[in-house]
Amino acid sequence: MTDVYEIHRWLEKQSARPLYKDEGVMFGDPSRPVTGVTVCWMPSPANIHAAAAAGHDLLIHHEALLYPYPFDHSQPLSAMHWRTNGQRLAALAQTGLIATRLHATLDQLFIFDAFAEQLGLKRVVAQGAEYHHRVFEIEPTAYVDLIQQVKKATGLKDLRVTGVRRDRLVRRVGMPWGGLGLFVNVGYVQSLVELIPDIDVMVVGETDNYGFRFCTEIGIDVIETSHEVSENPGLGRFAQALKEKFPSLDVRHIADPCVWMAR
Q1: First to last CA, the chain
Q2: Residue 27 and residue 66 in one domain
Q3: pTM above 0.85, yes or no
Q4: Same domain, 111 and 98
């Protein structure tokens, strides 16, 4: 029988490092054998109940279990009564699921590469020491055409984009996937600029006003997809790899849709 620790050990062997501090079991008895696993981006009550309805024992979620965003296993007790947190904890208690968070480990092993492939980014023109410090080069493409290509690749009808130079050709592309386009993670964007200063456009998962402005003030356009959509392909790839490694497990992936819509 498989338990959550066996899954953790498999991933640690693949990544050649321990799980990160913000990863690991968040709820439930990790020593209990599991027969079914639901992989999802956000541990929402809907996803928790869907996992239970499938007869699963384990929820593997990419994002944090509780708000505000934690950077280690300690959760602020003062926030336990927040309605969003209470609903999630109540759903886990009701269903009896084990919940484990796998974040940067899955980014490294599956998510970054899957999003690059989804966008058709193949040629690396600059690379840093870490797996995710890469700038890509594409054939010179009209910026407006690249926007349409990103829409097609992600299946999103609407994107938020900037318009530094709408009529220009773009060639060099940074890819701050997930939440790395957000202002709080601007150091990552800066690390790409330091790799190669003449980046034309950043195709990001999620960003915000400050994140947009950081790039536009130095002449870099931004195309925003969404946090979840940029990470769903890699989570699906992880779910498939998990099934192949542990064939006795029933593994399913829930692809969280983009939470907002244009009106």
Answers
A1: 49
A2: yes
A3: yes
A4: no
